[in-house]
Amino acid sequence: MMRIDIITCLPKLLDSFFAQSILKRAQDKQLVEVHVHDLRDFSPFKHRQVDDYAFGGGAGMVLMPEPIDLCIQKLKAERKYDAVVYMTPDGEKFDQKKANSFSLLKNIILLCGHYKGVDERIRQHLITHEWTIGDYVLSGGELAAAVVSDAIIRLIPGVLSDETSALTDSFQDDLLAPPVFTRPAEYKGWKVPDVLLSGHEAEIEKWRTEQALERTKVRRPDLYNKHFSEEG
């Protein structure tokens, strides 16, 4: 069973996310455990303070090192962790390949940034990976941690009812997924491509490959070029 521990100063933001749909079923099946830890529980201060002003001045507050260190050390005393990931706008871009790789791990800690971020000494001494989900800034790392968790958990064998579904998602081969259609075969004069109704599996797969290539070429030429460079 995989275990994901999420450290945040706003734990209630994550309550509903992991209590619905595929993520809830994955936990019910005991394929993954998700534990959310309130950073304020590890504050040494009476009023549960976890942030302070930055040395040198400037706008914004910084998460102090002690509560984060205490939380991480408590978790590490209970089990061995494969990775401690800090969600931060200046991290490495999270992508499908990282999700694939991390879906094979056993225990993961995700640290949610907040305010102006965490004390740099935490990043230097306790963090193994730093990720961002895009070139923009959120109010905190909670949504990013939820996105990363979702992308990883859905790849664990047994989580999806059709395990081949994840293998045909966008980005698995540096390609976008082809168009998809469902019933009815004709709606308001809009028709499903004949090949998809033919029952000819080889022709359908050929069509899907062609469509995936064309869609990627038009919408994400960077991925299109990467796909062929890695094939070569």
From TrEMBL:
InterPro entries: Alpha/beta_knot_MTases (IPR029028), tRNA_m1G_MeTrfase_C_sf (IPR023148), tRNA_m1G_MeTrfase_TrmD (IPR002649), tRNA_m1G_MTases_N (IPR029026), tRNA_MeTrfase_TRMD/TRM10 (IPR016009). Keywords: Cytoplasm, Methyltransferase, S-adenosyl-L-methionine, Transferase, tRNA processing. Residues 2-226 form the tRNA methyltransferase TRMD/TRM10-type domain. One of its GO terms (biological process) is tRNA N1-guanine methylation. Pfam families: tRNA_m1G_MT. Homodimer. This is tRNA (guanine-N(1)-)-methyltransferase.
